[in-house]
Amino acid sequence: MALILVVEDSSFQRKIIIKILEKAGNKTLFAENGIKGMEVLETHQPDCIFCDLLMPEMDGFGFIEALNEKKISIPLIYLTSDIQDTVKQRCLALGAKGFLNKPAQETQILGILKSVLG
Amino acid sequence: MKITEEQLDTIKELFNIGVGRAANTLSTMLNSFIQLEIPTVEIYTNPDYSELKKRLNLDQVSTIMMDYESTFSGSVFLMIPPESATNLVSALVNEEPGPISLDPVRAGTLCEVGNMIINSLMGSFSNVLQETVNYSLPEYKESTFENILLEKSEQKETSICIANTTMKIQELEIRGNLIIVFKVGHLEKLLASIDAI
To answer: How many C-beta atoms lie closer than 10 Å to residue A24's C-beta?
Structure first.
């Protein structure tokens, strides 16, 4: 069982992702944007983070940059509607451990989580 | 402005790829087969919105809108008749259709669906043309076809590109229009990118 932080502004998407993660026996935390995500990390140490890209206040790029700046090395997987190859390359270059396009299927989400957590 | 057959063909193909990808997205979300009509694509400069409204049979529309910035910039709209939007939300949240209203669940769900569909479309443009596109957050509005487009078409030389398609999801018939409004001079920039392929 792992503790997963879901950083996602859409309550609709959060519900879907959290349901998949919890059904597989994981515990979850959530934040509505990158700033809230950083606040959660002040008090919790999740094993992995699923993060959207396009969010208000602090987007997914800003969030991973903030993690890098604070030298927080929790594996981060992007889950985004953005299908651009250049965006995927940028995310991986910034240190993301995975990149999935929405809507991701249960097998994809749990598969990438398993590969990231080892 | 003159658009060559080849340029128009490429734009149609980019819409085809994007709409196909959008249908695949919806199919995954709804876990159901989606029958897709090939979209008709039309380009207008200085459009007469009241004439377009009649022809597309769109008056009051549920709209998800995102601005985009790239070599070519503007706004993209997914317009759905309100009854189609209600059917779509009901299918997604597994509830019976309720009254048409601006409740937060409806707006939030449509925003996220619109985000995925618009990304499917513009991402296809980006991947083929190798131009990165940056997006604003999606915005949801219910208003008339003309009001929504006029807000983003203040300049007289505005060009718009309309793809009209119908997706049949099981018994539900979800009709939708994807509309790209270009900033002044930016359709020409898109055409230049197409010519450079």
So the answer is: 15
pLDDT at B52: 87
Question: How far is the C-alpha of A86 from the C-alpha of A78, rounded, in Å?
Answer: 14
pLDDT tens across B72-98, in order?
Answer: 999 999 999 998 898 888 888 877 665
Q: For the complex shown, is ipTM > 0.85? A: no
Structurally, how many domains does chain B consist of?
A: 1
- Does B116 sit within 8 Å of A102, measured CB to CB? yes
pTM: 0.85
Question: In total, how many domains does chain A have?
Answer: 1
Identify the closest residue of chain A to B109 by CA–CA distance: A12
Q: Would you call A23 helix, strand, or coil by DSSP?
A: helix
Query: Do residue B29 and residue A103 have CB atoms under 8 angstroms apart?
Result: yes
| Nearest CA among B180, B173, B150 for reference residue B79 | B180
Please answer yes or no on whether A86 and B126 come within 8 Å at the CB atom: yes
Task: State the Cα–Cα distance between residues A88 and A97, nearest whole angstrom.
Answer: 11
Which residues constitute the domain of residue B164? 5-195
CATH number of the domain that residue B172 is part of: 3.40.1550.10
**What pLDDT digit, counting tens, does each position of B150-170 carry?**
887 766 678 899 888 877 776
Q: Which residue range(s) make up the domain with A41?
A: 3-117
In CATH, what number is assigned to the domain containing residue A110?
Answer: 3.40.50.2300
